[in-house]
Amino acid sequence: MHKKIGYIAFFFAVAIFLYGCHNDKNEQQDVVARVDECVMRTQDIFVRVPPEFLKNLDREQFFRIVEDWVDEKLLAEYAVDNGAENDEEIKRRLEEARNQIFVDYVRNKIISQRIKISERDVEKYYLSHQSDFIRDRAEIHALHIHTPSKVIADSIKKMLAADSSFCAVARKYSSEYYDRDSCDLGWFSKSDILPRLVRPVFSAKPGEVVGPVKIDEDYHFFKIIERGDEGTVRPLEQVKDEIYGRLFSARFNELLSNLLDSLRAAKTVVIDTFMIDSLSQGGKNVFRKHSSAGDSFQ
Predict the structure, then answer these.
(1) Burial degree of 260 (CB within 10 A; 0-12, 13-18, 19+)
(2) Residue 296 and residue 233: Cα distance in Å, rounded?
(3) Does domain 135-228 fall into CATH 3.10.50.40?
(4) To 5 degrees, how large is the angle CA 18–CA 20–CA 25?
(5) Quick check: 80 and 91 in contact, CB under 8 A?
(6) What's the alpha-carbon Rg for the chain, to the nearest Å?
(7) What span, in angstroms and rounded, lies between the C-alpha atoms of 108 and 126?
């Protein structure tokens, strides 16, 4: 508990050190909480909680988020009042955090924003690298419904037999279906599913519905969309995200390297290789001597 509080106070102190807090008296309409002149606005909650989780939070969870912010503010201010800003170890860690935040800004807000990968780029890469996407095992593309209830499973079976939309049934009855998801499992191999599901799923043909298959206390339904045999090339749609990631990573590294080259050319950068050699040869002794000087702040 004490360790958690310490981390909370430290990281919130970083935020105070770098950004201060909201205290504009002319913009008070969306204020959720206040500690003296510092306020928490609704936008601060949005920053703390991923968008996909926001709509599922209840009143108690929202209250806890706000209460945590108040605790962090109080502890951070208490730390400052008790000399934290003058502590050398705190200064070092704040500087490290500050630098990392700025590095992340360069990576995410400057370099990444300059990268444009078109559909044509992805398609061109796919056509020239098809050997990279040959299946080394059989794969299935399927839809899925899951329920722990036998009564619901029986109802699902009847609806699917009557040609009801598989995903419409999943949306209504599947215990693993959320608004942000779909019933589409995508592509998977035998090793990706429970062993007892392999035979019924991989023996089915495209268009067939499998289930209910009872595993322990749960019931599973699958609709087979496509099959991909070992040795065949995965379709572009299946590997599009992977290709985008490859192209983005390559372009990112290129831009980062070019930026660092230009920055090094514009600054005076000196690296003492003799000192590095000395450290590498006597590093263990230096480490022992440094460690014996006292415990570091954790």
Answers:
(1) exposed
(2) 54
(3) yes
(4) 155
(5) no
(6) 28
(7) 26
What pLDDT is recorded for position 15? Answer: 46
The tokens describing 122, both together, are 């992805």
**Identity of the residue numbered 76:** A
Indicate whether this model's pTM tops 0.85. Answer: no
Q: How far apart are CA 162 and CA 139, in angstroms?
A: 28
Q: Report pLDDT digits (tens) over 53-70.
A: 877 888 899 899 999 999
Sheet of 139-147: strands edge to edge? 184-189, 139-147, 218-228, 209-215
Long-range Cβ pairs for the range 21-27 (8 Å, 24+): 21/73
The structure tokens listed for 227 are 């099959």
Comparing CA positions, the residue from 268, 271, 262 lying closest to residue 110 is 262
pLDDT band for 297, please (50, 70, 90 cuts): very low
Closest alpha carbon to 9 in 112, 87, 103, 119: 87
* CA 127 to chain CA centroid, nearest Å: 30
Non-local CB neighbours of 177 within 8 Å, separated by 6+ positions: 145, 170, 171, 183
Q: Amino acid identity of 102?
A: F
* 76 to 159, 181, 194: CA distances (angstroms): 58, 39, 48
Select from 266, 263, 252, 273 the least CA-distant residue to 117. Answer: 252
Amino acid at 60: E
The neighbouring-strand residues paired with 31 are: 41
Say what the pLDDT of residue 51 is: 79
Query: Token digits for 23?
Result: 């205290």
Residues 33, 40 contacting (CB under 8 angstroms)? yes
Which residue in the block uniquely carries the two structure tokens 């502890």? 75
Residue 95 and residue 14 in contact, taking contact as beta carbons nearer than 8 Å: no
